[in-house]
Design goal:
By secondary structure, this protein is mainly alpha-helical. It contains six helices and no strands. It has one domain. 72% of the residues lie in helices and 0% in strands. It is globular. The model has no long low-confidence stretch (mean pLDDT 84).
């Protein structure tokens, strides 16, 4: 995968999480269950290479919780809250 495409996927995933309260809440619940704490994912911040790298690190850090969320039964319901929820599934399937 081209690095620019990977960066775009990361930005899309973080924006979907930030724009959808049900997805955001479900991910936090999954993080709490998996890690015993909620891990931050920055959204709506100025885009620089540093910001993109930070988002990549945050999503890698919560990858197991995100994977469990997308594979779980609750995903079908919470994904309805965003027209762009497919960005999360697409990124998950490719990685």
């Amino acid at each position: 995968m081209h690095p620019c495409h990977a960066c775009l996927q990361v930005l899309n995933v973080s924006l979907v999480i930030g724009d959808s309260v049900p997805i955001w809440a479900a991910l936090h619940e999954m993080q709490q269950s998996k890690y015993g704490k909620i891990k931050a994912i920055s959204v709506h911040c100025a885009m620089s290479w540093g910001g993109v790298v930070l988002k990549i690190e945050e999503l890698i850090d919560t990858k197991d919780a995100l994977r469990t969320l997308v594979e779980g039964a609750a995903w079908r319901e919470v994904s309805k809250s965003s027209q762009n929820a497919g960005a999360i599934c697409h990124a998950y399937q490719r990685n």
